[in-house]
Amino acid sequence: MAGVRVLIKFRDLGDDDCYGAYSHRRKVIEIDKTLKGKDLHDTIRHEMLHAALGISGLAYCESYEEEAIVRCMDEIFFPAWERFSKRFKEKPTLGSAQEK
Ligand SMILES: [Zn+2]
What we know:
This protein is an alpha+beta fold.
């Protein structure tokens, strides 16, 4: 990611509320080994967003709510982008691919 190697490791994270974690110091994403399918996909994407913000330096701004930004991208930007991409592939004209 941006020329930085980030490892993805799978282990038992124990806590039911903790699906994944990113350590910027170690450049490691840890994912709970029980996750499958969409939860696994979405959790890796979520932790990759944390990694991108850490690597870019944005995570170190003095006033900054990282979890809110990651959730905005997770829950608003990417679902919208995926709908747009799907429609754009079907009919690649701007008129038919407007995002709502
Ligand atoms: Zn998070």
